[in-house]
Every structure is written in structure tokens, then in C-alpha cells.
Design a protein that fits this description.
435 residues, Chitinase A, domain 3, 3 domains
């Protein structure tokens, strides 16, 4: 069969499909007869409903179903014959000038583009590295201590200080009027740990149990509560309780409480170092991967199929609605989410996906079984029972597909870094972890 493919635009194509009308009719009749064996209708026993009744009730839907099937088969056959890589679903429209005894349709669609990747040696990529310092280990140990701290009530004569847990009543007013969320009784927070706005935190310091005071506080312009953002409030605060924190000593008893084998302080520091090194490795890889992907977008030339972008926009919109549902937003399914807000992100994802796919295909960068296994085992080391985590990954195709995607991206990253102009940069541990 000779397929005539008409080029409408850079990626848009059109094929005319023709189907024998009598073939459609025979298939419709066959399906209606099959349906008649089980269909139920008032006044008739199952399987005894007249064909005229079956056709009247189900003829349109069966006709539509048959047309969809036959046109889909014809399109798949024609696209295969013409060796076309179709991007997205075709748009089918009926033609009025079909030959006698035939039904004709125009199938308009897009094809995958040719992806041209320039010489990577001409592009510069920043590659970062980070060391796990003793200071980073010290801070992590301190966090572990704070997770296991205890509190004891201070004497009434002592004021609240850094690290104390205070219990207060407070009420805030703006221009003399209370505002939503501006009042609480028996509210607890730890002084100096960033749980409250700096002005509030500072205003409470030094207060004694039974003392009340009023101080002014200006909410930041970007404060999450839009009703009070940028405004100045007066807060009346009453101190109810002050508790001093007690941090456990870093000794063998503390180490044993963490379940670390060996029970020594050195074993604790070694364990912390390994965990931090693993986290640093993943974060560094993510930063380097992002730099590589940005470089690939600069190096590649291609036209992006609109159908794929539209599909990605739909997927991102659906994900946003699902997120709203999880947050408890009422009528999340009806929430107005403009598709255009996802357009740039969707186009970037599609463009990058096409570029990466071409690089993988042309350089045999597919994930190998041993790479998948190694990645899963490395991820599993972050958990208490690594063997169970490995089984959890291996037992689900979707999870394995996600692992495969990550490994392929890692292969692409190594490939590009091995060919581009690499600029190495050392990033401080704190900068990496807070980015």
C-alpha cells in the first residue's frame, strides 16, 4: 500500500484514510448480534431481545466504537507503512468527498523531530565537589543531642534565655483590632531556634514567669499570611512557664541510645560521616546533573511537538489537582488552574526528554542491570533494613522504571562531563545543604 503523507508544517503531517463502508456495516452488525445474546430489555427474556430493539438502543454507540477501532487500525497501519514516528494522538476529521462505497478521514498529527546535538567539547559545564568536614559532623551530632534533650522548669526568678522552652499567652492587634491567627493560649516554642519571627523571639527573651509586656512587631512583606504581610502589630505577651533544656552528654550511653554498633563516640562520628557523605554525593550529583541538562538544552537544536507539550501540561495540571486534594482543598477537581502556568515547564521537560533520548540512543547509554542493582543498594543503605528496601524496589515495575530513569540520567551526566569543558568548583558543605 502506498501512503501519501502531506507535510503541513515543520512537524505536522496529514494522511487520508479510506475504509470500505460495507466492512464497517458488517462489523457493526456482528457486534450487535453478539451484544443481543446478553442484553436485557423489559418484556423480553435475556438473549431473546429483537435485533431491531438492540440496534435502536445500542446502534449509535456500537457504530462509534467500530469507527474508532477501524480508523485507529488504519492509521497505525499507514503510519507504520510510511515509517513515521508519531508524536501524540492524531486528530481525525471525516471527509465529505469520499469515493462511492468508501468512508474517508483525514488524520492530522505530529511526528518526532530530528534532534541535532552540537559538539559538546565547545560547551562549558560547572562541576561541583563538596567535602564532609569535622565541623559538619559536629553540627550533626549537636542535632542528634537536641533531638533527645529534656526540659526542666526554671526558678521563677530567672528570665527566658536562648534554648529555653517557654509557654506563653499572646494576643496581637493591628491598629487596635485583633486579627486571625494573632491570639493563642498556652503556646510553646524554643527561644532562639527560629520558630518565631526574630522580633517576637527577641521580645520574649528575659521575661520572667508571671510577667506581661507589650511590644511592636512588623510582619515581613513576603509573610505567608497575606492579610498581615507588611503590617505592624502590637503583641501583648504573658509568660506562663520557662523550661531550661538539658542536652545529653556525648558518651557511650548516648551512642548506644542511637543504636550504633560499637557504642563508642568514634563509631558515632564514623556513622555520621558515612551518612553525610551519602547525602552529599546525591546532592552533588543532582547539582552536576542539572548543570549538564542545562548544557544539553543549549547544545541541541530541535522542534518540539505541540502534542507532547499539551500532554505534559495535562499531566502537570492533574498532579497539581492531586496535590490540592492531599492538602484538603475543597472542590480541588474544580479549582481554576490556568494551563499556561505549566507551559514553560512542560516545554522544557519535553525538549530535554527528546534530547536525552537521542543522546542515550546514539551513545548506548541505557541502564545496565548491574547499574540498577548498585543504585538500589546504595539508596537502601540510608534505611534501617536495607535488604527489605532492595526487595521493595525489585518487586515493583513502576519503582524500577523510576530507578532506570535516574541511572540513565547519571550515565548521560558522566558522558557529557567526559566531553565538555569542565570547570571544577568546590562548594562549602553548608552552601550545598542549604541550597
Amino acid at each position: 500500500m502506498t501512503v501519501n503523507v502531506e507535510t503541513l508544517d515543520k512537524l505536522e503531517r496529514r494522511i487520508t484514510l479510506t475504509l470500505p463502508a460495507d466492512e464497517i456495516g458488517r462489523e457493526v452488525e456482528s457486534r450487535l448480534k453478539k451484544l443481543a445474546r446478553t442484553v436485557k430489555a423489559d418484556g423480553f427474556r435475556p438473549g431473546k431481545v429483537p435485533m431491531s430493539v438492540v440496534a435502536q438502543r445500542y446502534g449509535y454507540s456500537v457504530q462509534y466504537e467500530v469507527m474508532n477501532d477501524k480508523v485507529g487500525q488504519a492509521f497505525a497501519s499507514a503510519a507504520g507503512e510510511a515509517k513515521l514516528r508519531v508524536a501524540g494522538a492524531p486528530r481525525i476529521t471525516a471527509k465529505s468527498d469520499a469515493p462511492e462505497g468508501q468512508l474517508a478521514f483525514d488524520a492530522t498529527f505530529e511526528v518526532y523531530p530530528e534532534v541535532r546535538i552540537g559538539d559538546l567539547a565547545e560547551f562549558e559545564v560547572e562541576r561541583i565537589a563538596t567535602d564532609v568536614t569535622d565541623e559538619a559532623i559536629d553540627r550533626t551530632v549537636e542535632i542528634l543531642r537536641k533531638q533527645r534533650r529534656t526540659f526542666a522548669q526554671r526558678p521563677a526568678a530567672e528570665g527566658g534565655a536562648e534554648g529555653d522552652r517557654v509557654t506563653i499567652d499572646f494576643e496581637g492587634k493591628i491598629d487596635g483590632e485583633p486579627f486571625a491567627g494573632g491570639k493563642a493560649d498556652g503556646f510553646q516554642f524554643i527561644v532562639g531556634e527560629g520558630q518565631m519571627l526574630p522580633q517576637f523571639d527577641q521580645g520574649v527573651r528575659g521575661m520572667k514567669v508571671g510577667e506581661s509586656k507589650t511590644f511592636a512587631l512588623k510582619f515581613p512583606d513576603d509573610y505567608q499570611g497575606q492579610d498581615v504581610a507588611g503590617k505592624e502589630a502590637d503583641f501583648l505577651v504573658s509568660m506562663k512557664k520557662i523550661e531550661a533544656q538539658h542536652l545529653p552528654e556525648v558518651d557511650e550511653a548516648f551512642v548506644r541510645s542511637l543504636g550504633i554498633e560499637g557504642g563508642t563516640v568514634e563509631a558515632l562520628r564514623d556513622d555520621v560521616r558515612k551518612n553525610l557523605a551519602r547525602e552529599v554525593k546525591f546532592r552533588v550529583l543532582a547539582r552536576n546533573k542539572a548543570a549538564v541538562m542545562d548544557t544539553l538544552l543549549k547544545a541541541a537544536e530541535l522542534d518540539v511537538p505541540k502534542a507532547l507539550v499539551d500532554s505534559e501540561v495535562e499531566r502537570l495540571t492533574a498532579a497539581a489537582r492531586e496535590d490540592l486534594k492531599k492538602r484538603g482543598v475543597k472542590d480541588a477537581e474544580k479549582a481554576p488552574i490556568p494551563a499556561e502556568i505549566f507551559q514553560p515547564q512542560a516545554e522544557r521537560r519535553v525538549r530535554l526528554g527528546l534530547v536525552v533520548a537521542e543522546l542515550v540512543r546514539s551513545n548506548s547509554l541505557q541502564a545496565r542491570p548491574e547499574q540498577l542493582q548498585a543504585h538500589i543498594e546504595e539508596v537502601a543503605q540510608s534505611y534501617e533494613k536495607p535488604a527489605e528496601v532492595v526487595r521493595w524496589y525489585l518487586g515493583d515495575r513502576q519503582r524500577m522504571a523510576e530507578v532506570e530513569a535516574v541511572v540513565i540520567e547519571n550515565n548521560v551526566t558522566e558522558h557529557v562531563l567526559g566531553r565538555a569543558k569542565v570547570v571544577d568548583k568546590v562548594v562549602a558543605f553548608d552552601e550545598l545543604m542549604t541550597a
